[in-house]
Design a protein that fits this description.
heterodimer; A: 116 residues; mainly beta; four-stranded antiparallel sheet; 0% helix; globular; B: 110 residues; five-stranded antiparallel sheet; 11 strands
Chain lengths: 116, 110
């Protein structure tokens, strides 16, 4: 069974640009969560999607948005990039949403975003 | 955002030694997960725990769900060079999202 696939693996952008990251969950998984990982802040939750609906959102500005498609694939968009947005963005998929017990998240390899 | 406390922050050990690390929270959790992350990769799930007092093994790794439900422990026996990496704990209460610890960076000296 294929794991969580994130594309692209690496991305370089300049301030003010926007970026879209993609995540394909494990087959059969309906929940996708996005995290930002930086050396200083660790893993910070961005948002979770389940069946095309955003279920939870972390404490990030509105420049960060996402969506989920009917095939459970998800995209994350960051508009008006800032230097501080440089980070590893991780996607995690699980069978069900946060309300279900024994809900394990499996991570992709991440997209390394560098903002110059 | 909320984070767990994880200790130690880093550790250097000799190959063959046993390793212990722990994770604490100010809130009770129903699930504890332990992950390992190699440089440039995403976290890989090692062990999942669902019940207070539960003890689960995965090869040389053993993790326990603390009886207070506010902590968890991970032990690695007879460490080998490929154990090098960052170990993260994650916990959650039903209906809520996972929160992650800052990680324990493990270095194994030959």
């Amino acid at each position: 069974k294929a794991g969580v696939t994130q594309t692209p693996r690496y991305l370089i952008k300049t301030r003010g640009q926007q970026v879209t990251l993609s995540c394909s969950p494990i087959s059969g998984h309906r929940s996708v969560s996005w995290y930002q990982q930086t050396p200083g802040q660790g893993l910070q939750f961005l948002f979770e999607y389940f069946s095309e609906t955003q279920r939870n959102k972390g404490n990030f500005p509105g420049r960060f948005s996402g969506r989920q498609f009917s095939n459970s694939r998800s995209e994350m968009n960051v508009s008006t990039l800032e230097l501080g947005d440089s980070a590893l963005y991780l996607c995690a998929s699980s069978l069900a949403d946060a309300g279900v017990a024994k809900n394990i998240q499996y991570f992709g390899a991440g997209t390394r975003l560098s903002v110059l | 955002g909320q984070q767990l406390n994880q200790s130690p922050q880093s550790m250097f050990i000799q190959e063959g030694e046993d390793v212990s690390m722990n994770c604490t929270s100010s809130s009770i959790f129903n699930t504890w997960l332990w992950y390992k992350q190699d440089p440039g990769e995403g976290p890989v799930l090692l062990i999942a725990l669902y019940k207070a007092g539960e003890l689960t093994s995965n090869g040389r790794l053993t993790a326990q769900f603390g009886i207070t439900r506010k902590d968890s422990f991970l032990n690695i026996s007879a460490s080998i060079p490929s154990d090098v990496g960052i170990y993260f704990c994650a916990g959650r209460f039903y209906g809520q999202n996972f929160v992650f610890g800052p990680g324990t960076r493990l270095s194994v000296l030959p």
